[in-house]
Specification:
- The chain is mainly beta.
- 2% of the residues lie in helices and 30% in strands.
- Strands 3-4-5-6 form a four-stranded antiparallel sheet, with no helix packed on it.
- Strand 3 and strand 4 form a beta hairpin.
- The radius of gyration is 39 Å and the shape is globular.
- About 36% of the residues have low confidence.
């Protein structure tokens, strides 16, 4: 029999003609690829792959120096090598070709110097023979495709060999993906619609709902259609918990239905005779049903609802007898439908029969009777530059539209005419009922004007007035909601982490939430 081996070291280590304890073994020099295989004290290997100095693995893949694992694969603990190919423990060569025992490595086109593993796509630890696509660990062989032991370079193909560490190890935690945001101009080329401020309180014809600081939703008042969302149709003059909802970012109320936006999902309940709940039926719902996802904001008209999607388009559902769904038809929709006529506006708000917002030029744009039209700008009325980041409130119980200019002055539009309510300044929010308007000022007080048959102006009388006057006993208010004949504000509580609510006006159905059904011309606290 004859064997071949690539030998290193001085003559005394292998030339047994000099020192021959094995008389039958006589080595000879031979040629590989025309290169004489003379031994060297510190051998310089030559192969298809490039060999690098001690402990620096080199290949077509990028090998990283000592203790710096680098690879597309994941880094694993010390002494746990891996590779796509088979891992072989110490002294056990593995390859498609035949590997010779310790200190006698043999691989086609692979020269391996001391402590320097090399091969195409192959990393070889100290004194461990290897072969193409085979990583040979020290001590503990592991399984398929994990990582590289300490002091052992990895074998993932990357780029030209280098002694500089490449690729930060993938042990660093990755930043979670961000929530989707509305673009300034969407991928379809239209100018996206944006919503107004978030609402923590909402008022309908005769019911009120609020998002609680504790992470729930509560409602009180009329419940003929299940608009309180507590699984019954019984009215309540104190707050009751809405079932199945753990808080939300904004809440809105139509005439007799309610919707909340929670985690990008829209949930609605209450009257559904014209599909305003949006669940594909006309059955009233006394518990919330999920309607839509990927939503950025919501608004509710008298008997229809609209949602502004995260990508800037608008979906609407419910009554459409006046074209208020803005989809080019006058047919009701029991499920969300694309409102193709609503585009290029901010602070979208839904009302009795139309939805309105502000254009970038400060024009009040509404979709009414199935068509979109610009009603005019605020500049001729106030003499000030228009603003698009303030409030627009479209009345759900009548024809009036109220908006705020950049000085916080309410501007009404009704019967084709604008009117500035110049006695009110520094308003930050505005809302309207049937015949009365209330504005929340930046100092936490409220001013109301208009009809006052049920004490809805909050001044301890029933005398109507066209002049705005301050609501009694309200301070530190930060949100307002106006129902048909009542109004409520959220105020900062003396107890940290909680909010108080005050309401005034009509209380026939318990919509003031103070445990009685008596009207109140001054604000009372909700229980």
């Amino acid at each position: 029999n004859s064997d071949c081996a690539l030998l290193y070291g001085s003559d005394s280590l292998w030339n047994h003609q000099i020192n021959n304890p094995y008389p039958n073994y006589s080595p000879y020099k031979f040629l590989l690829d025309g290169v004489e295989t003379n031994f060297e004290t510190s051998p310089t290997p030559t192969a298809t792959a490039t060999n690098t100095p001690v402990d620096t693995a080199t290949a077509t893949a990028t090998n990283t120096p000592i203790d710096t694992p680098t690879a597309t694969a994941t880094n694993t603990p010390i002494d746990t090598p891996t590779a796509t190919a088979t891992n072989t423990p110490v002294d056990t060569p593995t390859a498609t070709a035949t590997n010779t025992p310790i200190d006698t490595p043999t691989v086609t086109a692979t020269n391996t110097p001391i402590d320097t593993p090399t091969a195409t796509a192959t990393n070889t630890p100290i004194d461990t023979p290897t072969a193409t696509a085979t990583n040979t660990p020290t001590n503990t062989p592991t399984s398929t495709a994990t990582s590289t032991p300490t002091n052992t370079p990895t074998g993932t193909l990357t780029a030209t060999p280098t002694n500089t560490p490449t690729n930060t190890p993938t042990n660093t935690p990755q930043t979670p993906p961000k929530e989707p945001t509305r673009p300034s101009v969407s991928f379809t080329g239209f100018i996206p619609v944006t919503g107004g401020e978030a609402h923590a309180i909402a008022a309908g014809i005769a019911h009120t709902c609020a998002i609680t600081p504790e992470g729930g939703v509560q409602c009180w008042g009329n419940n003929d259609y299940g608009q309180l969302g507590n699984g019954t149709n019984t009215a309540s003059n104190v707050p009751v918990d809405v079932l199945g909802i753990s808080g939300g970012s904004t809440i809105v109320a139509g005439g007799n239905h309610t919707c909340v936006l929670s985690g990008g999902d829209v949930w609605c309940w209450g009257q559904n005779s014209q599909g305003q709940v949006g669940d594909g039926s006309t059955a009233d719902r006394n518990v919330p049903v999920k309607v839509l996802s990927n939503v950025a904001d919501i608004t509710a008209g008298l008997d229809y609802t609209c949602a502004i999607m995260v990508y800037g388009q608008v979906m609407c559902w419910g009554n459409n007898d006046q074209g208020q769904l803005a989809n080019g038809t006058k047919s009701d929709s029991l499920v969300p439908t694309l409102a193709t006529l609503i585009a290029g506006i901010s602070n979208l708000d839904a009302g009795q029969t139309k939805s309105c917002g502000l254009t970038s030029a400060g024009l009040l744009r509404c979709v009414d009777n199935g068509s979109s039209m610009d009603l005019g700008g605020l500049v001729p009325v106030t003499g000030q530059a228009p603003e698009t980041n303030l409030d627009v409130a479209v009345n759900r119980f009548g024809p009036v539209i109220v908006s705020l200019n950049n000085n916080g002055i309410p501007v009404t539009f009704q019967a084709g005419k604008f009117k500035a309510i110049s006695d009110v300044t520094q308003a930050i929010d505005v809302d309207s009922g049937l015949g009365h308007i209330c504005a929340l000022l930046n100092n936490g007080t409220v001013e109301c004007w208009g009809s006052n048959y049920y004490g809805q102006l909050g001044r301890n009388s029933q005398a109507s007035s066209s002049n705005p006057e301050t609501v009694l006993n309200v301070a530190s208010a930060w949100q307002i909601a106006v129902g048909k004949y009542h109004a409520c504000v959220m105020i900062t509580s003396a107890t940290p982490g909680t909010d108080d609510i005050q309401c005034w006006g009509l209380n026939k159905d318990g919509q003031l939430g103070n445990g009685t059904n008596e009207n109140s011309p001054i604000p009372v606290f909700v229980q």
